[in-house]
Automatic annotation (TrEMBL):
tRNA processing as UniProt keyword: no
GO MF: adenylate cyclase activity; ATP binding; DNA binding
Cited Gene3D superfamilies: Tetratricopeptide repeat domain, Winged helix-like DNA-binding domain superfamily/Winged helix DNA-binding domain
Swiss-Prot/TrEMBL keywords: ATP-binding, Nucleotide-binding
Cellular component terms per the entry's GO annotation: cytoplasm
PROSITE patterns: HTH_LUXR_2
Pfam family, one: GerE
Protein name: LuxR family transcriptional regulator
Sequence ranges assigned to domain HTH luxR-type in this UniProt record: 848-913
InterPro entries to which the protein is assigned, alphabetical: AAA_16, P-loop_NTPase, Sig_transdc_resp-reg_C-effctor, TPR-like_helical_dom_sf, Tscrpt_reg_LuxR_C, WH-like_DNA-bd_sf
Length: 915
């Protein structure tokens, strides 16, 4: 089961709750409702009673059909097979239930009695497919929450099957009025979740192309996806081949059965739409089908109402699932498909200024390849100009299928793949471009991009070699734009490899040439390299920041969005902002600029990483974890960085360890590798940290040896990492002398002296030198350079030393300061401070459960959704209420809890959850 963790957690909480709980699970066919329910049932305690009923399409003619099916096969009460009342059915009640001679009230009472007896102990009752349920079964469903006992009632249904005449329609309304109801709406899997499912099945991460193709084909419907995977066979599943594989016959037949009762006009429209693509303009569809406008509107309205097609945009239509489109198109003759493509192409060309992607697609279908290549060239350039990198790549590659030697298309594909953060594809396209380029200027352009891709893909030595090639070719270039670009690339390469004086010198040379040739874009890009190099020099930080801010402003004014985004990113990443407000403002600007440029690694990965870091600086651990999770959901390319390491996973594992979520930390850690499959120093440190937090001394000792070996192989650790490792090692009982060699392997810079003070204080305390440790702890505790959580640990260390030295009053002040800093934190640091409260005479933190708070049941449900990160609009859709009502709930929750933000609600829930 993929992508349903939050929903499963909510059902598990409901099943463990008091009294009667109701959950309604909605979603289209195949989206995973039954799978979610089964996962819930599989994880229930052994003593939980389970009653499951399944409605069928013909159930409306069989009163109480769901209950009768559920009890079918159970032993009657008092039999030798099952004498226990909790597992038996009263024969008299069962007879009344099936006897139409009794009134509906008597039969309903008998049905409720059966459920009461069968679920006397803690129970879960499931009514599947309520949209097909008979009126009597829906009435029973509504009656069950009134029964005594502790049970969770779960109903599943398909919203698109619920009409005004369905018994379930009135049931949904009445339930909402009478009881607190938890609504779970299952959406289709996103691209990230599709990738996770493919990885779980195939045993390896899918390429972006395979994931995107299979996601598009199935629309993210888990059932369709699983059927395609099943068709791929059991052994050696080839996801790339599966993208082109025909539909399994059973799936194709199931999809085509939706068209069994359409009339000829509807069939004509459906077949034309199936050939024309997943987004068909109304005018093109009208031209191809030759239907009058009004008649086509009528046909489309009926097809949309029946769920066969959807309105994908203004005056655009398509199939609900791409597989349905494939199933219809596969029935047509090849000549029919070519004719439809040709009619569509002529209509688009006659209209003028048509979408190049549509023109290219229909030109290929019609066999008019000159039109295809022209559309691919113009479309790739147009999409790159507006930041639509994925669309540009798709179009360029479509053209390259027919013209593989076209350098314009190859260059467009290379740049688009790089912007989309598809580094493997970018590497392949750019290498081919560099190989085929004959003119020095073309080869220089290819080498420039290849060097950048090599750096971002962790190919450090290749990046350096490519820089040398660019240096060799610069003298062959005339004093023009390409020469200036090449010089700027050299400056960038030196900046990235920390050759800062060389970077500044080459940036200045580039700026001078750009000014001479009036190339403002090149000048701005070179100024980014110069400003970034200055920012990395301790005595020139302010001049670097000033320069980059000016570059960002000028680049935004000139529409040089990529340059602006890089300038802002480097400010944020190299030097901490003066305030969180300033940092967040820069971060939002960076994201907007990167999105306009179509540069995904900054628009997604760097943005959410920045959000997480700022949340940590604000002392909000939950918000930091939420930001990283959201980034991971948005883009799987977020996983890798220029160091070839899954930095997202490293970051998230570290935060999971902070929060004390050891199982999660272990599960993420298992997926982490470094360059060439070897663990990075960060991963080695996390393995040691996890072993320490689990209390496994032997594993910790072995992991520490591996870390020391990694330092000898890879390089020095940094101050923050050493602080975490020393804290973990001491918590696991390792002696200080075993950990002290860590301090000898760090290159302590002037900027890291606060970390040095903290680390040596930790070790001095472990060695019994409280007075020496106190000096270091208090220095670290007073440092604004360290985050709130780290300063809290320094305060806690100072308090322990002061207690040992007999200064309890001063220790109390440190404990109070630490507790305040950790108000929105969690995990081992909070436990460390709580352990000190009693020693200094401070009360233990209040243990308040959610049910003891002033929130109503509905408000508690809304609060849980807020903690999941839902907006007001998403709350409204999930709970079937208006956005205004959702906003009122949020306002009431904030007011009652005395909080000011949604992230504080999430932190409050985490702190006050029972157990």
């Amino acid at each position: 089961m993929v992508g349903r963790d939050a929903e499963l957690r909510r059902l598990v909480r409901l099943a463990a709750g008091p009294g009667s709980q109701i959950a309604l699970v909605a979603g289209e066919a195949g989206v995973g409702k039954s799978r979610l329910v089964q996962e819930l049932l599989d994880g229930l305690p052994a003593d939980t009673r389970v009653l499951v009923a399944q409605a069928d399409p013909g159930a409306l003619g069989r009163p109480f059909g769901l209950l009768l099916d559920a009890v079918d096969g159970l032993a009657p009460a008092g039999s030798a097979d099952d004498p226990a009342p909790a597992g038996s059915v009263d024969p008299d009640a069962l007879r009344i239930l099936g006897d139409p001679g009794h009134s509906i009230v008597e039969r309903l009472r008998a049905a409720a009695g059966i459920v009461q007896v069968l679920t006397a102990q803690p129970a879960v009752v499931v009514f599947e497919d309520l949209h097909w349920a008979d009126p009597e079964s829906t009435a029973l469903f509504e009656r069950i929450p009134d029964l005594t006992g502790r049970r969770l009632l779960v109903g599943t249904y398909r919203p698109d099957e619920v009409t005004r005449r369905s018994p379930v329609a009135e049931l949904l309304t009445r339930l909402e009025r009478r009881y607190p109801v938890t609504h779970l709406r299952l959406e289709r899997l996103g691209l990230t979740e599709t990738s996770v499912l493919l990885e779980a099945v195939s045993g390896r991460p899918p390429s972006y192309r395979a994931a995107a193709s299979l996601h598009n084909r199935t629309g993210g419907n888990p059932y369709f996806l699983e059927e395609l995977l099943r068709a791929g066979g059991d052994g050696g599943l080839d996801l790339e081949r599966l993208c082109e594989q025909p539909l399994p016959w059973n799936l194709a037949e199931a999809l085509r059965r939706q068209l069994d009762d359409v009339d000829p006009r509807q069939q004509r429209v459906v077949e034309a739409a199936a050939v024309l693509g997943h987004r068909v303009p109304f005018d093109v569809l009208a031209a191809v089908t030759e239907l009058p406008e009004y008649d086509l509107i009528v046909v489309l309205r009926d097809l949309v109402r029946r769920g066969l097609m959807i309105e994908t945009g203004e005056d655009e239509f398509g199939f609900r699932h791409a597989l349905a489109r494939e199933a219809v198109a596969d029935q047509l003759l090849g000549r029919e498909r070519r004719r439809l493509h040709e009619l569509a192409l002529d209509a688009l060309l006659a209209a003028g200024d048509a979408d190049p992607a549509l023109v290219a697609r229909h030109a290929r279908g019609a066999g008019r390849y000159d039109d295809l290549i022209r559309a691919a060239r113009s479309g790739c350039a147009r999409y790159l100009a507006i930041g639509a990198a994925h669309q540009a790549l798709s179009l360029a590659e479509m053209g390259l299928e027919e013209a593989p030697d076209d350098l314009e298309l190859r260059a467009g594909a290379a740049r688009a793949a790089w912007l989309a953060n598809l580094l493997h594809d970018a590497w392949q396209h750019t290498r081919r471009w560099a190989r085929d380029a004959a003119a020095p200027a073309d080869r220089s352009a290819a080498l420039r991009l290849l060097a950048r891709v090599a750096w971002e893909d962790g190919r450090r030595e290749e990046a350096k070699a490519l820089t040398e090639e660019i240096l060799d070719i610069i003298d062959q270039l005339p004093r023009g734009a390409e020469r200036a670009h090449a010089m700027g690339t050299v400056a960038q390469s030196y900046m990235l490899t920390d050759r800062l004086p060389d970077a500044i010198a080459w940036a200045d040379r580039t700026i001078a040439l750009a000014d001479e040739l009036d190339l403002p874009g090149v000048r701005l890009a070179a100024a980014v390299e110069k400003g970034s190099a200055l920012l990395s020099m301790p005595d020139r930080v302010e001049s670097g920041r000033t320069l980059l801010l000016a570059v960002a402003e000028d680049a935004e004014a000139a529409g040089e969005w990529l340059t602006a985004a890089r300038a802002l990113h480097n400010i944020i990443g190299i030097v901490p902002p003066s305030s969180l407000a300033d940092g967040n403002e820069l971060l939002e600007r960076m994201r907007a600029d990167a999105e306009r440029a179509g540069f995904e690694s900054l628009a997604v990965a760097a943005y959410f990483e920045g959000r997480a870091r700022f949340a940590m600086d604000d002392g909000d651990l939950h918000a930091a974890i939420t930001a990283l999770e959201e980034g991971h959901r948005r883009e799987r390319g977020y996983l890798r960085t220029s160091r070839g390491t899954n930095y997202h996973g490293v970051f998230l594992t570290g935060l999971a360890l902070e929060a004390g979520d050891l199982d999660r930390a272990e599960s993420v850690l298992a997926t982490l590798t470094g360059p060439e499959g070897k663990p990075s120093l960060a991963v080695l440190g996390l393995v040691f940290h996890l072993a320490c937090r689990r209390g496994d001394a032997a594993a910790a000792e072995a992991a520490l040896d591996d870390f020391y070996a990694g330092v000898d192989r890879i390089g020095a650790p940094y101050g923050e990492q050493v602080h975490d490792l020393v804290a973990a090692g001491l918590a696991a009982g390792l002696p200080g002398k075993r950990l002290r060699p860590l301090t000898e392997r760090v290159s302590w810079s002037d900027a890291a002296h606060r970390w040095r003070a903290l680390v040596f204080a930790q070790l001095d305390e472990a060695d019994g030198r409280a007075a020496e440790a106190l000096v270091g702890y208090e220095e670290a505790a007073g440092s604004p350079d360290l985050g709130p959580a780290v300063r809290a640990s320094a305060h806690a260390g100072a308090a322990r030393c002061l207690i040992d030295l007999g200064h309890v009053d001063r220790a109390r002040e440190h404990v109070a300061a630490a507790a305040e800093a950790l108000a929105r934190w969690g995990g081992w640091r909070v436990a460390e401070v709580d352990a000190l409260r009693g020693r200094v005479g401070l009360p233990a933190p209040a243990a308040v459960g959610i049910d003891d708070a002033v929130l109503t049941p509905r408000e508690r449900e809304v609060a849980a959704l807020i903690a999941e990160g839902l907006t007001n609009a998403e709350l409204a859709r999930r709970l079937y209420i208006s956005k205004k009502t959702a906003a009122v709930h949020v306002s009431n929750i904030l007011g009652k809890l005395g909080l000011s933000s949604r992230t504080q609600v999430a932190a409050w829930l985490q702190r006050h959850r029972p157990g």
